Amino acid sequence: MKSTLLWRGLLILAVLVTALYVAYPPEEKINLGLDLKGGMRLVLQVKTEDALRAETDSDMDRLLQLAKDEDVTGATGRRTGDSTFEIAGLTPESADTLSGLVSRYGYNNRWSVSRQGGRMVFDMQGTEVNAVRESAVNQARQTIGNRIDAYGVAEPVIVPASDYRIDVQLPGVDDPERVRNLIKSTAFLEFRLVRLPKGGGGVSSREEILANYGGQLPENLEILEGDIRDDQGNKVGEQFYAVEKVRTVTGRDLKTARPGLGQFRDPIVEFSLTPTGADAFARLTGENVGSGLAIVLDGRVVSAPVINSQIRDSGLIEGSFTQQEAQDLATVLKSGALPAEITTLEERTVGPSLGRDSIESGLKAGLIGSALVVIFMLIIYNLSGVNAVIALALNVLLVFGGLAGFGASLTLPGIAGIILTIGMAVDANVLIFERIREELRAGRTVRSAIDLGFEKALSAIIDSNVTTLIAALFLFQFGTGPIRGFAVTLTIGLLASLFTAVFVSRWLFDLVLSRTRVQRLSI
User: Fold this and answer.
1) CA–CA gap between residue 94 and residue 100 (Å, rounded)
2) Is residue 461 within 8 Å of 471, Cβ to Cβ?
3) DSSP readout, 373-395?
4) Coil, strand or helix: which one is 292?
5) What torsion do the CA atoms of 36, 40, 46, 51 make, to the nearest 10 degrees?
6) What is the DSSP code string of 308-339?
C-alpha cells in the first residue's frame, strides 16, 4: 500500500513540477490572444480564379511548345475561360499528333479534351479545379505566414476558412498600417507581351488603343493600366497598354528577389527564376525580340521594357521606385508571390488598453468564481472540501502548463473555458463525495465507502467529460479565432480535470487513511 502511494505521489509531483516549469513565468510562457494582447484581425478572400487562369495558361503554353517540337505548324492557343482553352489551326494530322502528346504527357488526366474540326477544346476536370483552388488558398496562407514571420509577429494565427478565405490574427501588432500594407501587397507577378504600343511605353487613353483595332479589342488581348511617375517617384498620371492575356511566366516561377541599383543609380528589383521558369522565360523573350514585355504586378503594369535579346534565368524590375518601395517589393516577392489576388473582407483592430481591460475582467471573473466554489465546497463538505480545493488548484496549474507546453494562445473565450473547467472539476468531486456519503449512510466503513464512492462515480465522470471533450474537439476543428481558443482551454481543462478529480483526489484520501485510523469521515 505504501509503495503504491509513493509511486503515485511521485507521478503527481512530476506532473506538477513539469507544468510549473513549463508555465513559469506566465507573462513570458503564456501566449495571449488577440483580444487580450491587442492587435489586428483580417479576413481575406483569395481570388482563386487567378490561379486557375495561370494554371490554364501554363498548360496551354507547354502543350503548344510540345507541339512545335513535333513540327506542328499553324497551331494557336486561346484561353476561353478561367479553366478552359482551345488550340486552333490544326490539320487532321497535326490534331492526331497533338492527341498523342496529350496522352503521352498525361494532360488527359486533368483535362477533358474534345476535337471539333480543326480545333481541340480543353476543359479542366472538376477535381482538378478544386485542387487548384485549394492549393491557391494553402499557398496564399503559407506566403502570408512567411511575410508575417519576416515582420516579427509573435504567435500569429493564420488559418484557412470556408469559401476560399483566410483568417489572420496578429496579436501584439503595434503598427497595423505597416502590416496591412505588407499583407495587401499581393505581389501577383506576371510577365506578358505588349502588343500596343510597339516601343514598350504606354499610351494616354484606352480609346487610343481601341482605335488601332477598329474599336474592338481582339479576344487574346486586354488593356492594363500603369502609373506615370516623376523623377521623385510621385504618381503624375496613368498610361495604358494592350497586352496578351496569356501568362507564360508568373511569380510562381520566381526563385529569389533583391533590391539593387539600375544604370542611373535608380532603385530597382533584381530577380532570378527557377529552372522551369527560366526555360519558359527564355522561349518567351527569344521568340519576341523587339516586342515590349510588360511586368505586371497586382494587375498593373510596373514597367514595359523592349526585349533586346533572349533573357533566360534573371532580370530586373524598374518602375521609378523609391529605395523603400524597392526594398518592400523585394521582401514581398522573396517571401513568396501569392498564387492569386486577395481582397480584405473584414478588418478589426484591438487596442492594447482594451486587451488589458479584458485581462482584468477575465481575472476578476475567474477569481470570484473560484472563491465562490472554494467557499461552497468547504461549507458543504467540511474538511473533505479541502481535498477538492487542492485538486482544483492543481487543475488550474495543469491548464496553464498545457497552454504553455503546446504553445496555444490564451483568449478571452479561453478564460471562459478555464472557468467552465473549474465547474466541471468541482462537478466530478461532487459526484464522488455524494457517492461516498451514500455508502457511509449504508453503514460502510470509511475505506470501503471511499473505494465504492470512486468506483461508482467513475463512469458518470468519464461520460460527462468525454461527451464535453467531443464537443470541444468539434469546436476546434470547425471553429475559428475565439471559438478555437475556447475549445483549446476546455480540452486541456477536461483532461486535467479527469487527472485531478480521479487520480489526485483519490491519492489524497488514501494518504490520509494510511497515516491514521479514520473512524469517521467529515463529509
Assistant:
1) 10
2) no
3) HHHHHHHHHTTHHHHHHHHHHHH
4) strand
5) -110
6) -S---SEEEE-SS--HHHHHHHHHHHHT---S
Count H helices, E strands: the chain?
A: 16, 19
Give tens-digit pLDDT for 398-409: 988 888 888 777
Q: Is 267 helix (H, G, I), strand (E, B) or coil?
A: strand
Q: Read off the pTM.
A: 0.57
Cα angle, residue 188 at apex, residues 186 and 190 outer, rounded to 5°: 160
User: What is the grid cell recorded at 265?
Assistant: 543609380
Q: Are 115 and 99 in contact (CB under 8 A)?
A: yes
Read out DSSP for 198-244? TTS--BS-HHHHHHTTTT---TTEEEEEEEEE-TTS-EEEEEEEEEE
Q: At 318, list the grid cell.
A: 524598374
User: Residues 60-119: pLDDT tens digits?
Assistant: 988 998 998 898 888 999 999 999 999 999 999 999 999 999 999 889 889 999 998 889
Torsion angles phi and psi, residue 228, rounded to 5: -105, 125
**What spatial distance separates the first Cα and last Cα of the chain, rounded to whole Å?**
24
Around Cβ 411, how many Cβ atoms within 10 Å? 29
Among candidate residues 373, 376, 377, 422, the one with its CA nearest the CA of residue 399: 422
Grid cell digits, residue 46: 483569395
CA dihedral 145, 150, 153, 154 (to 10 degrees): 80
Q: What angle (nearest 5°) sits at the alpha carbon of residue 244, between those of residues 242 and 245?
A: 115
